[in-house]
Amino acid sequence: MSAQLMHFIFCEMVSAAADTGKSPVYRKSSLTRIALLSAMLAGVAPVLAHAENNDLPFDPALCGGPISTQPDPANLAAREDPATPVTIDADRVDYFGATQSYRFAGNVLLQQADQQLQADRIVFNQETSRADASGNLRYYEDGLTLWAEEGHLYFDVTRGALSTARFQFEHSYTHGDADEIIIEDSQRSRYRDVRFTTCPPDRTDWWLRGSELRTDREEGMGSARHAWLQFMGVPLFYTPYISFPIDDRRRSGLLAPSYRQSSRSGFDLRIPYYWNMAPNYDAVLAPRIVTRRGLMLDTEWRLLTRQFAAETDLQYLPDDDLYGDDRWLASLRMESPEERAIQWELDLNRVSDEDYLRDFGSGIASSSVSHLPSLAIASYQTLDLRVSAQAQTWQTLDQEVSSPYRILPRVRVDYNPAPIAAGLDYRLESELTYFDHANPSARDTGVRAHVVPTLSRTWDGLAYFITPSFAVSHTEYWLDRPDNSAAENPSSTIPIFSVEAGIFLERDFALGNRALMQTLEPRLFYLYVPEYDQSDQPRFDTRDSELTLGQLFRTNRFTGPDRQGDANQVSAALTSRVVDRQSGREHLSASVGQIFYLEDREVTINDALEDPTRNSSDIMAELRSQLPGGFNVFADYRWDPYDNRTRRSGLRLQYRPQPDAVINLGYRSRTERDSGSRELEQTDLSFVWPIGARWHAIGGWRYSLLDNETLEQFAGFEFDNCCWSFRLLAREYVRDLDREPEREVMFQLEFTGLADVGRSVQDFMIDAVTGYRPRR
């Protein structure tokens, strides 16, 4: 901007004030685009905004309400609108021709939209393009307030400084100060003796401090020297130098360390480093010190291209001090983009030994894995056609368990077009699979083809439906069999006929002031499948399925196509629901069902699971209830009417009045058919419950009544103080009932807006306590 134009603008402003007695007003021009404090804040905003954007949502119950509301989008738009006026108020305006400078003095207020700059005095030198503001300097915009004793700025090069500055994000509690803010240019700035926190101003429990902080908006990076975290007045963490991102761009750097203490492995410290190699691929390298085992390396590699996304996990522990050998894990996961017509997925997994997951997993789930799967699958789907190919292999970890068959490969074609003539629905399911085994000299291997075309027709109305269906199941094999006398090309072709019908009845009623509706939904399913001798067919992936309510309406009582169960039976079920007529919420659902056999079943796998000569199945019932006040109930029950005993039962009660308060009680049992003895009986209790506004108690207990042994128990507490939280939890669990229980202590110290320290106890709470959701 030329000196003549600058002089003209200021003269017009002074003239307007003198002539009208009002505040000068002008439209946004090239001058106001680099208005005084906007340029000063160009260096401050990146760090403050980054701290704010990473701030976790705070809980008004802990912190009180926000100082002000969230920034109004209308104000943000007004700042960028060229038509938005800028006004200047001052008690006195002077122009000094000798120095070519202007002085605004006395209650100076510069305002545009929601942005306000206040100072006792502002002096602008036209020749040097320097503006000095001093005395009670205050800048405000929706959501941010900044104070300083004085400051200056060179408009021509966007360079300047603020002295003794303080800042406050007003819709949260992020605030801090710096002895000096030096603006080097529009992209780079420096801060001396800076600190900030997310604690309320009257309870600053922690500060993040640094002797010098630099930011580079162009690179999206910041760095600090002699940075330390001070908690309760005590230095908690110090580093002579650290770099960090100030925007959403990924940057290499250290991540928060995690550690745990367990009775089996000792102290386990993991220090991850994030390596941002390129925009589409990165890695996490995590050295891990396990005191009783040695030095370990965990790595995770990610790659994203237009053709696929890939993630690789590699873990390596040389010469495990307890195990006496090298330990490792390798995992590769790849998948195609969702928008591609052909979808594919690859999941490969291997470990060094059968105890690896037991030693480095987390609890019973990982230790109970007998076979580690690797899978590749591809599929193509249109509106009525789906074609897929799959290959699957296994690494057997439990040598006492027989290895499953490898699928090399399986091709499926499913066709389900729109209804054809006369309202008939046609569906085709087909597959071709090659089964291989690690021990082909003892197990059948070969190819299986399976095709099931189905025709059905549905008649329905508002309160009923009836669907007859006819299908043909054809299965054929081409086998290599250790028994030379067994058929190498067995096959079966079996017709399947079924009729399903249901009625929907409903009535309205009121309970207190609640308008409710109750439904009554009887359902019948007749199934006829003639008996066909399939004893010469192998069993690659077929077994008995446990009878449930959902199984009542299936056409095959086995899980795979190696066996098609014969049937002449009627399934009957009755469901009743209670629904809120206004909200549509289902308060209660109760179902009961049973199969009535008109003939004995001849095709069986394990008679011990289900007696094929009985005239009816066990009676199955389920109850689900969601009651007002946070009470939820789920119960399932299976009764054997022949032996007059319970075969399976389960009950889960939940009280959840709010997301961070939940109590779960559970019981489940299962009885063997032959002996009538219990094969499983367990109870469990888990809870997270607030004790006052800031404390939560955490606990859980899972107990085997059958073995008279505790399977898992944990207890701890959580303290949340608005800007920081602390969680401590002790846990004891068994990976194997024949081994001593393992114990570990987990803790987590979390600073709102910063990384947390320690293992995530909150993640464990979410997994272990059904229904728990953290407050923030």
Beta strand %:
over 45%
Specify the helix fraction band. under 10%
**Total beta-strand segments:** 44
Tell me about the largest β-sheet: 26 strands, antiparallel, barrel
Please tell me the overall pLDDT: 83
Helical segment count: 7
Q: Termini separation (Å)?
A: 50 Å
Quaternary assembly:
single chain
Poorly predicted residue ranges: 1-58
Query: Which structural class do you get from the secondary structure elements?
Result: mainly beta
From the spread of the alpha carbons, the general shape counts as elongated
Which value, in Å, is the CA radius of gyration?
Answer: 36 Å
Structure, described:
The protein is mostly beta strands and 776 residues long. Helix content is 8%, strand content 55%. The strands form two sheets. It has a 26-stranded antiparallel beta barrel. Strands 1, 2, 3, 4, 5, 6, 7, 8, 9, 10, 11, 12 and 13 form a 13-stranded antiparallel β-sheet that branches. Mean pLDDT is 83; it is low at 1-58.
Would you summarize the structure shown here?
With 776 residues, the protein is mostly beta strands. Helices cover 8% and strands 55% of the residues.
Looking at this protein, list some descriptive labels.
elongated, mainly beta, disordered N terminus, 7 helices, 26-stranded antiparallel beta barrel, 13-stranded antiparallel beta sheet, 776 residues
